[in-house]
Give the backbone structure.
Amino acid sequence: MFRDATSVATLAIGEGRWIPRETIDHLLAVRPGAQVAEALRRAPDVVAGLTPEQQNGVQFLSVDLDAWVVTHNESILALESTRHAAFFNTVESRPLTDEQIRAVVTLDNRVHVVASAGSGKTSVMVARAAYAIMRGFVQPDKVLLLAFNRDAAAELRTRVVDRLVALGLPSDGVTATTFHAFGLKVIGDATGRKPRAAAWLDGGQDTAMVCRIVDELRDRSPAFAYQWDLFRLVYPRASEAPDGGEPDGYDKTSRATGFRTAHGEVVKSEGERLIADWLFFNGVPYQYERPYSVDVADRAHSQYRPDFFYPQLEVWHEHWGVDAQGKPPAHFTGYEESMRWKQALHREQGTTLVETTWAGIIDPQGLEQLGRQLTEHGATLDWNPDRAAPGLTLLRHEDLARLVRTFMAHVKSNSLDRITLEERVHERASAASAPRARLFLQLYWQIHDEWQARLRADDAVDFEDMLVEAAGHFEAERARSPYELVMVDEFQDASQVRARLTRALVQPSGRFLIAVGDDWQSINRFAGADISVMTDFEQWFGRGPTLRLQTTFRCPQTLCDVASAFVTKNPRQLTKAVVSAHQQAGAPVTLVQVPGADGVTQALTARLDALAARIARGDEPTAPGRNLSVFVLGRYHFDRDLLPRRRWAGLDVTFKTVHGSKGLEADFVMIPNLTNGRYGFPSNIEDDPVLDLAMADPDAYPHAEERRLLYVALTRARRAVTLFAVAGQESQFVVELLEAGKLDLRTADGRRAETVKICPSCQEGTLVQRSGPYGKFLGCSNFPRCKQTAKVDDPTKGSVPF
């Protein structure tokens, strides 16, 4: 045994080659057990008769092998760093850091590199390929680099080949490709028939194809059309409990907060909104909380107002906020007694009453039952999804189609079938959300089947199927990977099927994987990315070192500190201590407060004017003949309209969405729309909970992906970042940064602004001045969700009514 271990260490140190996990596992497998070691320890006479080499072997039986290998590998790292210092200094445009050298030399079977933004992860991949080839550890045609899009793959291929040629190393056979192109090749090699990707997958045409399928299904099937519109118009959102839901309406007349209906009034509960919207699209006239026909008011009680009245039917309707067992929430004091009193009153007065419950109407069948009751009383149901709804911004066909396509990407990537999804509904969905989930699945599988039929008709595959099939060929040993060194870029964007394919590639012995990514930049959940692939690396791929690239060559330290503290509020993010390579701390992150939404473009113009003026004065360092770059980053494509239509001397100003800016950088970054609201930043267009059925482990932290998205936006900057927000409409993220003292607050003309008053109640809004029947007061910008009010002279004491 010791002869094996000694020879391993001697050979590794002599060759300067890292001792990988595979070797450790082999040594552990052949080492005698603890009982043998103990028996020899108790027999000193036997040990004394052994040769010196054998005696050393006996001592080695009790050695902590993992620690022993760590010690030897550290020695190898130090030796290689010294022996090949010239290589590490010249393999890329700047000398590699100690962190980068460690990632290059650590030629272990499974290496997980957690990289910060701008830390040179591509340099590590290029240098690792060159190092392994230079040292003779691997031939060029055994090297595979996998990227997530064609541009990234092309950049990797160019950089690797250029550096190998510059170093006088062979480059023929090195493969740098996308996962999808690689998947197609694997299928072709395994089956003898290479498929093609469906022509309608690129450029967002996949969602357009879902829309076309939906249109055809709606034309063919009235049942499908009704279910599609019912989900889109009545069930686009649903609370988990009778008293749940997020109020989104305010009635100025009654000064009541509640839920705005398609008809335009504000009702008290989400259950009442479901009913009101269903009635509206069925064309059933109703009156909300009309006073009861009999005066029952007394000294202690106001007049009874049932939830709904149908004037053409002379029918009253009470909706009870109770569960399937007929029980209201515990804090509904006296609710059951009130129910019994109202039911008795209708019996006594001989008035007609129909009743619904929360547990009943969260299931579409409950609404159908209500429809049958109303029809029996003479109502005519005229379902018309095209009615103009004055009270709602309706879920568009395109938005629901996009949800279906996102769900499909996860279903396919995770190899889920009908039975598994139904099991997940049972396991993961609450009693309240399960009926809605089943309604969605009824729609989804019809679209899914039609999608697959179109693929077969075109003799094509989609992006998910090509990876699933390729992984299956490897797992079933119909294909065998020739690659020994596999490197995966942007690993935070990996889906489960990409993880399956990667795992299958390196399953044979003698294979080496390095996966490089930044979980702080995981922003493609909508495209099938599953962050758990990166955060649960060991469970997917096996044991191996986790390394960190924590030195950024891009951002100044001030910006690193702000961005890092912001993104790590989510405890699920992997820890990194990001340090800037720049000597100066850098400018603070600036927030420009704009009086109104129509002033954002003007404020952005003023900021660019000031920057151009600094360049003209020589106050902003520039390279000769080079303009400074500015990214104006929008959360949405329509934020492009905020970009001024002019040019500035010394500046190259470009608009990009934050998603589109990933992997890029500029000298300055300006983010023009950090306001709250549905299309704010963070976006209040939350992921539909049905997606959780297809996800392995959804991130429950509030606005988790939106938080990472702002981190990406902040870390595109080499010099400074400016945020823009409308005063009194600052987004939750801005409020958080202000509360932490992370922002330099300025007015639109560049002067220092007054401190923003953070709402003491929700901690997510700001207190803004308003006028009411009692004069001026401060109210939370998150109203009606937050009703915090305060006196103008003291935002922390006293409250006034709206």
Observations:
- The two ends are 82 Å apart (CA to CA).
